[in-house]
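Bug #77: duplicate submission created two jobs. Keeping one. Sequence:
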Amino acid sequence: MNLLYRYISMHFLKLFFICIISFLFVYLSIDSMSKFWKLSSREVPLIDIGKYFLFKIPLILTQITPMATLLATLLTLSLLSQSSELVAMKAGGNSIYRLSMPILIISLGIGLFSLATNEYMVPYTTKRYKEIERFRPGVSAEDRLFKKNNIWYFGKEVIYKIQHINVKKEVLHNITIFILDRNYRVTTRIDAKKASWEVDHWQLRDGTTRHFLPNLKISYFDHYDFIGEETLDTFKVAEPEPEEMTFGELNRHIEKLKRMGLDYQRYVVDLVAKIAFPLVNIIFPLIGIPFGLKTARSSGIASGVGISIIIGFLYWVTMAFNISLGHVGVLPPFLAAFGSNIIFGLVGLIAFIGART
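Kept job's structure:
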């Protein structure tokens, strides 16, 4: 790296970290005003409230990094231009494209680092702060986390329909089991008011058995031992947020929902969005570079801050709108997650190519 590249890089990184710290301070200040009293009212210990905000920081950082990258780009070029350093650099035969390379390379690194943080750190810390957020006096963690009503599970040649799971007592209520043949025809239906797991089998109570083949045969039982591959853990369908899962965990969660016949569309969108959002760190500098040159020549740094807020707001609105359309199936997952990146990426690329050299 030559001296010029190092100089621009140091300028950019210094402003980037100032922006990150400033945004983090503002975010935590606003968040603490509402969340502190909310958590206190639920009798959450003070030390856990402190942990709540500490564990939330990695997620906040991944959310504010694109804005920090954009604003740092704007300020770097504005300050260099206002001090006439940019003019001197260009007079030395350096085009704006070449001078922008350190910013773009660092932004690429920031995007990849954000992607890695999203995968390896954010799921763990988000899970920890969500546990504190979900805290209710006298309510177990399992009862707060798992889906407990109207569960369908599609196993190997068997389908379970469960009206309610009591996770604490490990009891299934109002369960129906459909046993299928190789042609997926229902051969037997078992209905029971309750079912409990006993070492290696399900003990069903108060129900009926209907055998459909070769002829309908109905029998009633007080107790019935049903042996299957599925245990209680099989039916524990966690309802975590996408931020609480790694890419692999979210993908496995989607496969489990598919087997259970539950809606998984929103999770596919969130899976693709895990890749799409960190990459905006590479797109925003393309927009910031031409705007940084313009604001330096006109109204200065204040307008640069305003422009970055407007661009960030427009991106968030577009992203949220596309994601919501993806969740309900109006847009395919890839377009829902990457639509905003494609739009802003094209705008940024056109603006960057058209920037005065």
